[in-house]
Amino acid sequence: VEPGHTVLVHAAAGGVGSLLCQWANALGATVIGTVSTKEKAIQAKEDGCHHVIIYTEEDFVTRVNEITSGKGVNVVYDSVGKDTFQGSLASLENRGCMVNFGQSSGVPDPLPLSALQAKSLFVTRPNLFNYTETRDELLETAGEVFANIASGILRVRVNHTYPLSRAAQAHADLESRKTSGSVVLIPEGN
After folding, report:
1. pTM score, two decimals?
2. Centroid of chain to Cα 110
C-alpha cells in the first residue's frame, strides 16, 4: 500500500480489519471499509476509513464503483471469504490484488485462473508462518507492529473479553457478527 492507493477492507470493525484500516490510512491510502451495522460504521470511521459501506444496506460492489468513479481499488483485504469473494474480485482495478486471509462466511468457491485474465488480477492467500519462518523475520515483523502501536499509529481495540471456559460463546458471537475489535479469551484464575 502506497500513498494515493485506494484499498477495500472487509470487516473493517473487526480485530484485524481495524488495524488494517488504521495502517493503510497512515500510509496515505484512501480506505473503504465494509461493516454490518451503523455502530460498527462509527468505529470504522474512527479507525481511518474515509468511506464506510454498511453491506447489509447496500451492495458493496456498486458503492465501490461509485466511490472510485468506476476505476476500482488497488487492493482488497478480505477476511470474510465465500460471501464477499466474487464481489471483491469485481471491485479491483486492472492489475489489482486481492488478499484473502480468512473465511468467516465459509470457503470461497474454486476460482478458475481464467477469471483473473480480463483485468490481469492477482490473488494471494497468505499464511503468517510463511512470513515469520526465521527468528529474525519474526522479530522484524513483530517489531514493526509494536513500533506502530507505541507511536500511536495503531490502536488495538479489545472490545470483548470472555473467560476461557466460554470460548464456544466467543466463537458464536464472532460468527454472528456480535463483536467488534479484538476478542480476547482470559484463562480462569488470572
Report:
1. 0.88
2. 21
